[in-house]
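Example S7 (structure tokens).
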């Protein structure tokens, strides 16, 4: 089951990851939240991160913590 985050406005977001290739050829993993469950969903927040809500928009983000 995908990790879900319920923001203060009552909207549920699900955590996902994607491996992307940067211009220099280096591969990097990015994390993002979406309103639906897609390929690459995660069951838990990765080690070293915490999920928080932005004050201005209410969108969830991962913060190193």
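Recovered sequence:
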């Amino acid at each position: 089951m995908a990790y879900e985050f319920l923001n203060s406005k009552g909207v549920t977001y699900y955590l996902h990851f994607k491996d992307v290739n940067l211009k220099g050829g280096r591969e990097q993993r990015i994390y993002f939240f979406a309103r639906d469950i897609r390929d690459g969903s995660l069951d838990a927040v990765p080690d070293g991160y915490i999920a928080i809500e932005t004050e201005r928009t209410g969108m969830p983000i991962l913060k190193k913590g």
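Notes on this example. The CA atoms of residues 28 and 56 lie 28 Å apart.
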